[in-house]
Amino acid sequence: MLREIPSDSLFTILMVTGFFAIAVAKSIAPKRFNDFLLVLVNSKYLKIYSRDQKFLDYHDALLFLNLIITASIFSLICIEHLFSAIPTNLTLLVKLLFGVTAFILAKVLLERLIASLFEIDAMVDDYLFQKISYKNYIGLILLPVNALLTYSLTPSKVLLQGILILILLLNTSGLITTFKGYQNEIKKNLFYFILYLCALEIAPYIVIYSIFSAS
What is the pLDDT averaged over residues 206-212? Predict the structure, then answer.
């Protein structure tokens, strides 16, 4: 019996929503968006716009919306082809949309709480801005990737694993770039840095992978 898979029309609606969010982000701040496109090769975006952070930043919020959509769709595709024991359906897609949102926001809120407790709000705010910027960039890349996997290419385990490795490398590159900016503070508090890295940057993803592997 074939499993119920969300129709391509639903994928299309979500991907158009992600594309629309990106288009609006570019229209309201074209210079900032162009600088954002170079974030992997130029730190100009991070240096300039980290100083102008706001609690509610429409540009980042729109890019974050695209990240949620693209990450959820890509996760569903991976589950379908890498974890065949898990049924993929509309309910799972909705759960992924809420789950990805809750996961990222919970991590950000927890990190802000820790920053307040240790009175390092300014440093953590800059760090979170840089980290979220790299994640939003990954969301930008996933939009055409999802379109290809949905309408053109046949997802294979090798292809999906290759994309996952690329995402991991991009995310790691972002973290390394961010940590370089705070290397003096890290050297002074190496134990706490390693503890943070294991607890908030590595452990959550291992737990998620273990849950799906055990299913």
Answer: 69
